[in-house]
Amino acid sequence: MATVDPAARGGVARRARRAPALLPAPRFEERPILVYWEVTRACALACRHCRAEAIPKPTPGELDTVEGRRLLEMIAGFGRPLPRVVLTGGDPLERADLFELIATARELGLAVSLTPSVTPNLRAPVVSRLAAAGIDSIALSLDGSTAARHDAIRGIPGTFAATLEAARSVRSAGLGLQINTLVAEETVDDLPAIARLVAGLDIIRWSLFFLVPVGRGRLLQGLDSARAERVLRWLVDLSRTAPFAVKATEAMHVRRIAVQRLRRAGWTDEAIARTDLGRGFGINDGRGIVFVSAEGRVYPSGFLPLPVGDVRARDLVAIYREAELLRRLRNPDALTGKCGACEFRAVCGGSRARAYAATGDALAADPLCPYEPPAWRRRRRAA
Fold first, then answer.
1. Residue 259: in which H helix or E strand, if any?
2. How far apart are CA 135 and CA 45, in angstroms?
3. 346, 333 in Cβ contact below 8 A?
4. What's 348's DSSP letter?
5. pLDDT tens across 163-212, in order?
6. Secondary structure letter of residue 304 according to DSSP
7. In angstroms, how far is the first alpha carbon of the chain from the final one?
8. Cα separation of 15 and 18, whole Å?
9. Which of 357, 371, 361 is CA-nearest to residue 335?
10. Which end of the chain is less congested by CB atoms within 10 angstroms, N or C?
């Protein structure tokens, strides 16, 4: 997030309010801001950390064209401000009716982003066609600063070079480019070099996905909490000078770190809330986002495998607003353990997906966050 320290604006220093919590975060009870639709699980790659455990061919039972159009109509049914639709997979380009679905989404007024795999399907003419169809941004994955590092994660030689070529095609077509990077023991030492690489790709956002052990990601090693904290501090510092926005996916406590560090630097709470990290305050699994699988099942996110409904049986709007698990996930006071006692729970809330993966309880504390809230320490002393 290339933001200017508010203390420098107009030459007037403004000290941060030392309030115990920030401005109230949105609760997202009526509508999400992002709907992720896994249009297919088919993909030609064999990535070592694939959440979807993608396979070469589409699975039986994937939503067909008519059902897909109906889903898009459901998404438009949330009303304004309309959610953004992120078409993901697998590889969305494996879907034969992809451009029909994009056309339907645009007719409904929905903004559409795409997360394609870098395969022979993704060539410059296809990128140009996507731009003409109304896609406004594309996310590509880059998990290493060199071919050896990236291709080892992706499982296909040549993917690194193809990704850089695809990135250039995306920007040449006038589309926004997001780069996604896995954060795990296998990639963490390479993050500074990846940051330098993506800085030259004219991206709008660098999104770092902190490993949650789901799908094939169970085979990789996540960071311990101390190292994750150091990485997140580095990301917050990077976000103040980088020419692109920075996002930490499934590491929501980057928001707590941002508040702590920016308050110490003299930022007001209002100014913190206006940063790119601040605009993500409150968003979490099932809270501001929802995920629809290729077969139409609805989940809080792609990393939290607890189904809350099926769009073949019930309207997505009703599922999002009324499913008991989603209602609980949207209530910060329903959290337990350290997360429930934390003064940052409304803006952070911890990764519900990681809490579930570690404990079987989606409302438990996120084990990746080492912070001990004062209320939690007092509770422990009293016990």
1. helix 254-264
2. 23
3. no
4. -
5. 999 999 999 999 999 999 999 999 999 999 999 999 999 999 999 999 99
6. B
7. 42
8. 9
9. 361
10. C
